[in-house]
Amino acid sequence: MDQSSVAAYRQFALGTLLPLCRDRFADQVHGGFHEQLDPQHQPIATGRKRLMVQCRQLYVLSHAALLGERSGQAVAERGYAFLRGYQDHANGGWFFAASPEGVPLDRSKDLYGHAFLLFALAYLHRAFGAPDAIALAAETLAVLNDKLSAPGGGFWDGADADWAPQTALRRQNPHMHLLEALLALHEATGEARWLDAAGRLIDLFLARFYDPASATLGEYFTPDWQPDPEKGHIVEAGHHYEWVWLLHRYRVQSGSARADAAADGLFAMAERHGSDPEFGGLHDQMDRNGAPVLTTRRIWPVTEAIKAQAARIEAGLPVRPNQPGQLIGRLFHDFLRPAQNGWVETMTRDGTPMQTNLPGSTPYHLFLAAAEAARVLPAG
What we know:
This protein is mainly α. The protein has helices spanning about 5-25, 50-65, 75-85, 110-130, 135-145, 175-190, 190-210, 235-255, 260-275, 300-315, 325-335, 360-375, and strands spanning about 35, 50, 95-100, 105, 110, 160, 165, 170, 210, 215, 220, 285, 290-295, 295-300, 335, 340-345, 345, 355, 360.
């Protein structure tokens, strides 16, 4: 293990990401957090602030505090107050987006956004004892169960302002992040209700998302959970790795090994077919046989591969020698720009940068992977 790479990554998280979220993404005028920054760390006017971005930023400040870096507490407390403005007191749930000033803008309901709302509430409770955080989480999950529960298990992807569901397409991805949030709430409270809800999503994963014949994770489904005719063949190595980490967390917290074989299958498939043998890095998309579908590269799949490697090592399972260190090295070589206090978000297959603006959603991926690497792997 290259111990220096783990230490450098942790330093990037606490020395670069935390100040960016605290000082640059935080909107000092209107409250909340900006959607994007340009490479000079100036906010880019997008006309909206999505619920998901607010929650991911609050997560970073909260997790940093749990690691002993509490300089973002005042910003987190102001951000939490701003976040409360997204709550739909008339219909329940939380709005998809607000204006830069915090006025509800898009009143639709989004499962993905609600998942991150629950995730942020768990970390705000752990880090700062945020008032009402767990009560809000319980209320929110009850609303999802009441308004978005769908036939065949799981939830609809979203709904309009009055909770009329969007039923054309179903995705695994929001359910994955809902599982992540439920496990975070269980970790934050020790309460069995969150783990019980997480277990129902594990049931859904095993019954609908995971295909044992190909060891792949479906992304897009019809309303009755059949592979979507147009996009059902698409799989993503990044999400394979993300589920490997989540299934490990579920086993640690529940003691149940019922998804271990699926986690092994997902990991093996991603390791065998997810990487580009010519240029390195991870393909954005492949098909069920492992053939590349989309060969551009995003930053977040690398972070999920690091988390999966850490999970395997923590579980005493084999990984390739020094693979976590090599992945962290690739993250720095290809994507991270410590000298500029930033990163490259996306690039072509051969490594040409495609997006250099800094989305406010990305520090969540980068920070969580750094925290997991520092927690599990030896550092110099």
